Amino acid sequence: MVYSLKNCRDGSKATYETTVEIKETDGRLYFKFVAKNSQYYCPYHNYNDIHSEGDACELLIGTDPERKQYYEIEISPENKLMIALMTYGGDDVDGEPQLNIDFVNESFIDSKVTLTDDGYIAELWFDKKYIRTCDDDIYFNAYRLETDGGESEKHLFALSPTMRGKFHTPEYFVYLKEYLK
Fold first, then answer.
1. Exposed, middle or buried by CB within 10 Å (0-12, 13-18, 19+), for 73?
2. Ramachandran class of 30: left when φ > 0, alpha when ψ lies in -120 to 50, beta otherwise
3. What digits encode the pLDDT tens for the residues 62-72?
4. Which of 50, 65, 99, 106 has the fewest beta carbons under 10 Å from its own?
5. What is the CB neighbour count within 10 angstroms for residue 117?
6. Residues 137, 63 contacting (CB under 8 angstroms)
7. pLDDT digits over 142-166, tens only?
8. Greatest Cα-to-Cα distance within the chain, rounded to the nearest angstrom
9. pTM (2 d.p.)
10. How does DSSP classify residue 95?
């Protein structure tokens, strides 16, 4: 199924069209982002750089029933990945998520990025066994960041909008099985 991302801050229509296609085949999950209108801004160019400081598509996905531990998967328009096991410690007094980041040294994700005339297509696929931290149902959220050439967090889009300018908001994660129908 293909779903449109919305403005993460208020749930309105996204400034730039962004869709995510979600499939499961033989225990492998597949996510295909189509990101229209991008300047392909990538300030970092290596595996496990924080690509969300530029243009990127992102998944937060896990199985922890308390939603405290999950994987963050970022892909840049250059097909560079960042994969980390995140531990969410709540928000501080300023509303900033408190996160412990444990980078995954060896990628378990296959990926491909195709640049288009008006944006890019980012594809991710992996065996779902790699994101299981327990035997509970898989939850996730899908995101896109677009900086218009370098303005950090200018446009934030989400499958399930968090109603703020932050992605790490576990109460807005949704169950994957609801999107595989």
1. buried
2. beta
3. 999 999 999 99
4. 106
5. 5
6. yes
7. 999 999 998 888 999 999 999 999 9
8. 44
9. 0.95
10. S
- Taking the chain, what is the end-to-end CA distance rounded to the nearest angstrom? 7
Across the strands, what pairs with 125?
A: 30, 110
Strand partners for 87: 69, 100
Tokens of 117: 């005339």
List residues bridging with 57 in a β-sheet: 75, 144
Tell how strand 28-36 and strand 18-25 pair up. antiparallel
Distance CA 75, CA 112 (A): 9
Backbone φ and ψ of 128, nearest 5°: -65, -15
- Buried b / exposed e over 48-64, threshold 16 CB at 10 Å, is bbebbbbbbbbbbbbbb
List the beta bridge partners of residue 124.
Answer: 31, 111
Radius of gyration of the CA atoms of the chain, in A: 15
Contacts of 140 (CB under 8 A, 6+ apart): 59, 60, 61, 62, 173, 174, 176
For the cut 90, the answer to whether the pLDDT of residue 181 exceeds it is no
How many CB atoms within 10 Å of residue 127?
14
